[in-house]
Specification:
This protein has 398 residues and is an alpha/beta fold. Helices cover 37% and strands 14% of the residues. The protein has two domains: 39 residues; 339 residues, Alkaline Phosphatase, subunit A (3-Layer(aba) Sandwich), CATH 3.40.720.10. An eight-stranded mixed beta sheet has the order 5-4-8-1-11-12-2-13. The chain has a two-stranded parallel ribbon with strand order 3-14.
Length: 398
Amino acid sequence: MPRNKNRVRIGAVFFAVCFTAAFVLNPLTRSAWEVKNAFYPSVKRLKQDIYPLIALPKFNAPKKRKNIVYIYLESLNSGYMDEKLFPDLMPNINALSPRLEFDNIHQNPGAAITIEGFFASNCAMPYIYNFDDQNKNIFYKNITCASDILHELGYHTYFMKGASLKFQKTDEYFKAHHFDEMKGLADIDIKANKTVWDGGWGANDDDMFDIAWEDFTRLSKSGQPFLQSMITLSTHAPDGIIPKACENMEYNFQGNSVRMLRAVKCTDMLVGNFIKKIRSSEFAKDTLIVIQNDHVVPYIQSSKETYDALIHSSKGGGMLFMMIDDDFEGVKIINSMGSSLDTFVTVLSYLDITNELNLGRSVIGSKSLYGNDMRIYSKAAALLRHLKYDEIKQRRSQ
């Protein structure tokens, strides 16, 4: 009997070994493992793929110590500036001079909604927002962003929006990356003859720009360099919102009045007026103005014709990005390819602070990573919480 038991045990072990070997060596098993790694790569594999692309934070004090006014335009594609397609839709922004305009900037994965667009621009890394589990949206401090660099260089960092700072955890993101001052819906003084819109979740852009001008004057008089960033809301999907200042403004496309285009025209007027105030002020020569959309428009509900025309416009990749400064001469169009990750880095490059950061590269003096391998964006977003600059330095020194 003991011999029989031993034979059974040996047979069982032999069977288990053979079964395991057959399972492991099976082509279907290997294929399944490869698919799993493709969709859910290990942290080790992510580091192998992304670490070589990361530009470590290295920066200098700016040679041009300009104050920065950074205006994000909600979903406002560069195609709206196409005069042949939309004549006289954006006369104010189209007329800005002197300026540098970048007409080949593309939206990369991980920059498709407002908070992702902020993160991509400021941090030069993609961020994929989790709508299913809001608690998983954490903005880790292990990433150095443009605002962190400016803060360390002595800049006062400021942000304002007409919606709640709680929306998409905007406040948590900006707190994680050294914003000294933030204003949202609760901080905007809505006067008796002005109202919030769309269920009360956002304030009118004309109200926001009134406060932005007061704050610009205050910050300029302080003597401390500053970053004043803000975002408009009027051109928010699905069809835009019309501030009171533009209630009588019309715009027709193919014979029809289109609400979103009315909102675009209104935004152009409000932004244009705000910039004219800055440029006619005593602080103009000390101020660099940046205009960028947070992301491209996802859809226009009431006018498919407008949306189709817009996305097929000849104006580059749909991302609007330009800088206005009295130090420029005339209007210069730069056709170098870039992405959402490259915009703020390009601003830092213009100020001689740095030419690269994380996955961002200056469109002025460096080559963007955009277009090489689109998989890097999903991988980089998955790696965010695990990224360690010291570990990258150590690997490169070996």
